[in-house]
Write a structure and sequence with these properties.
This protein has 288 residues and is α/β, with parallel strands linked by helices. The chain contains ten helices and seven strands. Strand 1, helix 3 and strand 2 form a beta-alpha-beta unit. The longest helix has 30 residues. 46% of the residues are buried.
Length: 288
């Protein structure tokens, strides 16, 4: 007898195949003997591919509630955006967090200075000052510049280890140095969605991700389809040891990718890591 779980897995496989444009008879051998296809046939093929991709997004949106099964109920999520992150993608992720029963505790915008290698001195100085101010145990004393600032960002958005006053001090310091903005009095959230933007130096990104993962229960790094290319930020991060501590999801400019990211968030409550999406090494969608 086919279980409900197996039924859901099968449905997920179907809509992912459709979204990727996989169709019977669509392989490279299907063009043999048809070197001179009329332009109209090519147009129809392009339209069919677009329709399949659209269907995948529609299916993901319609079935998201059943796939989530309230997996984020009572779990606040912090959304952290890197410079150049797509506002529509970040907003769509927030919608899906709420559809899974969770809440968006706050949206934090990392500013250009934090990810600009020419501003490393500023990042290092502020990190050292805050580490001394917070005292022993808050930040690893031997952390590198960007792992340390990632830990401080994690203290500001995720951890419950600091007092409310100390958290406010970290947030104010990050904002005062134009490194990151924070909403007023936002509650801390153990789950973090880090939304990639324009290109970030790989070493800086890996350091920030490592630091965040040190302080949060679960971190999902979300990037676009383009970012998942071998030379893209997500593609490079996936080859770095830093990625072992977090889940990575590509394609979040689409509803299908946004649903996948929230499924990865749910999974991160119990199991860290994983690489998902069209270019994901661990499969298209994390299935609990």
């Amino acid at each position: 007898m086919i279980s409900y779980r197996h039924h859901i897995v099968s449905l997920v496989a179907v809509f992912l195949a459709l979204a990727a444009g996989i169709a019977l008879g669509g392989g490279p051998l299907s063009d043999l003997g048809r070197d001179d296809q009329p332009a109209a046939a090519s147009t129809r093929a392009d339209r069919a591919t677009e329709q399949r991709a659209s269907y995948g997004d529609q299916f993901a949106t319609a079935s998201a509630g059943a796939l989530y099964a309230g997996g984020l109920k009572d779990h606040p999520v912090a959304v952290v955006t890197l410079p150049g992150a797509d506002a529509d993608a970040a907003g769509g992720l927030g919608v899906q967090v709420r559809a899974a029963g969770g809440t968006v505790a706050g949206t934090y915008a990392v500013q250009r200075a934090l990810t600009d290698a020419s501003e490393k001195s500023l990042v290092d100085t502020l990190g050292s000052q805050l580490t001394q101010q917070l005292g022993a145990g808050a930040v690893s004393p031997d952390s590198s510049t960007y792992v340390r600032i990632g830990q401080l960002l994690g203290l500001a958005v995720a951890t419950s280890d600091l007092s409310t006053a100390d958290v406010a001090a970290v947030r104010e310091s990050l904002a005062g140095a134009d490194l990151a903005t924070a909403p007023d009095a936002a509650p801390r959230a153990p789950l973090v969605l880090l939304v990639l933007g324009r290109h970030t130096d790989p070493a800086i990104l890996a350091g920030v991700v490592t630091g965040l993962a040190d302080k949060a229960t679960g971190v999902v790094v979300a990037g676009t389809t383009a970012a998942a290319a071998a030379a893209g930020d997500l593609g490079v991060l996936r080859s770095d040891p830093a990625a072992h501590q977090v889940a990575t999801v590509d394609g979040v400019e689409t509803p299908l990718g946004q649903v996948t990211a929230v499924l990865a968030l749910i999974r991160s409550l119990t199991t860290p890591g994983g690489s998902y999406g069209v270019a994901g090494a661990d499969g298209a969608v994390p299935v609990r």
